[in-house]
Structure formats: structure tokens, C-alpha cells
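Q: How do we represent a protein-ligand complex in a form that can be generated cell by cell?
A: Start from the inputs.
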Amino acid sequence: MTSRAATSIAVRAPAKLNLFLAVGPPAEDGYHALTTVFLAVSMFDTVTVSHVRARTGLRLAVSGPDSAAVPADASNLAWRAAVLLAQRSGIDADADIAIDKQIPVAAGLAGGSADAAATLVALDGLWGTALDRGQLAELAAELGSDVPFSLHGHVALGTGRGDRLSAVLARGRTDWVLGIARTGLSTPVVYAELDRLRAQRDLPSDGDPAGVLTALRQGDPELLSGALTNDLAVAALSLRPDLRRALRVGEEAGALGQLISGSGPTVAYLARDAEHAITVAARLSAEGLFASVRVASGPAPGARFARSAR
Ligand code: C5P
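Then emit the C-alpha cells for the protein with cytidine-5'-monophosphate bound:
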């Protein structure tokens, strides 16, 4: 007896923080050479894919608090992931894709990349294309700079456009409070702002992630708090001066340290442990600066099966 293939597969993928982000000058293609330390945190989008009748094509539905801000069409990175996987595997792209979006949109948390990574893994299972992790990572890199990390999860050093990953040793877990802004920031606009500011004045960049890597290896949040670095912060602050206050209140709320996540505007506050994170979160909520304040811990796994139905 042959086993019946799954009719529905759910995969969840995590949000990311950049604990270290050094940005080089733009290359000819407009992309910047990065040195970054990624940390996946426990905030997940879930992508559920199911079979449709042959030749129905792709259908996409998005649910969750930010769903109105997410296009449910061919411009969605998850849709593009489905098309790319089908093309490369020489099959028709027929599936229902449902995204439960819990990662805030345009927040510097790689939510769109998480959806693309989860879609690749889920459809690879549904369609039986059975690519190995390396092949999935290659497709991921074609979709976006952060997608390989969304697939990988945990902690990693990213170079190139951020898509070339190498292993990082991290001891224990780190606890964070995330201040989610009311409106998002566009990643290309933040990179362009950095280029503009750098053309005007000298903005030194420390390209050496050793401080963050040592702190992670030792599992020492105090050490980590002093090493958090983000070259994009100056650009995000230039576009959104109100973020200065959001950074300042972290200290008043007792956080060990804080940084803007990626291109922002999410501010990530580092806590000593889970209990401390809850205290810091309560104090930050009381400031009324954010659309929401959430706690999360890292490292979290990359895109992984959550459930399947036959
Ligand atoms: O790779 P991805 O499509 O996610 O990148 C979004 C935008 O972020 C790019 O269009 C580019 O403006 C900027 N970017 C960059 N250098 C990188 C990664 C992203 O300039 N290494």
C-alpha cells in the first residue's frame, strides 16, 4: 500500500534581529556588502499550503493583525517563492497558500522573508519536490537577502548581501522586548538614506563582529548589550527622529541595551532573562510609544514543519 501524500502542510518561520550590522558601500547592482549577526527570535508566521484541483493555479490568503498591509497577489514574496520552486522543479504551480501573519510588517524583522522561506519548505513537501536544504537555500537567496537566514534560523553570521551564512556558536538563550512602531519603514528607503548621509559626512563603520560573537559564545547578556551594533540606525533615526525617544526609554525601563532591528523601526531591548523581559515590557508599554510591545527569545529554529494533514 502506498502512503497518501499530505493534502495540507503548515510550516512556521521566525522573525530575526540583527545583533550586529555593518553596511559597506553600495555595489553596482545597488546592494550593499554586509557583515551581520542574525538571531532568530520566537515570533513566527505560519504558512499553510494545500492541494487544489490541477491547473487552478496559486491562491493566496493572508490573516493576522497586519494582514491589510500585505498584498495577497503575485507581488507577495511567498507567491514568488511558489513560482520559483515550481519553475525550477518543472511542475505547475497549483496550491492554496494561507499565511497567518504574526510578525509585524515593514518592521525590520524579516517577516516577508519568513513567509517566503516557510512557503518553500511547505510546498517542497506538498509537491514532493524533495529538494535538500542546500537547494532550498539557493532558491531562498534568489528571493531576498534575508530569506536564507529565515530558512536556517538559530544564529548565523551573514556576509555578501546577508545571504551567505556561516555558523555561530551561542550559549544559552537571550530574552528580548520588541517595541513595534505604529508605521513601518521601507528597507530600500533606509539604505538610500544611509548612502545619502554618508555622501554628506563621515560615518565610521566598525566591520568587526567579534564583540557580539564573543558575547554569544559566552552566553553573557551584559557583554552582548555593549556590543550591539547597527549601521542602519543612523538612517532609520534620520527618517524617524521619534525613534530616539524609543531608544532612550529602554534605559529608563531597565533594559541592558537596545538597538534598532535591521532597517527598523522595531526597537529590540535586551533583558537579563525571561522574567526581566516581562518587567521591561510592562514599563515600555506604559510609555505609550508603540503599537505593541512583545517579548521574544532567541535562538529560534528556522522554517520547520508545524503540522500536516492527509
Ligand atoms: O534582498 P531584499 O530584496 O530583501 O532587499 C531589499 C532592499 O534592501 C534592496 O532592494 C536594497 O535596496 C536593500 N538592500 C541592500 N543591500 C543588502 C540587502 C538589502 O541595499 N545587502
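The domain at 8-168 is CATH 3.30.230.10 (Ribosomal Protein S5; domain 2). Residues 30-32, 34, 144-146, 161-162, 187-188, 191 surround cytidine-5'-monophosphate (CB under 6 Å).
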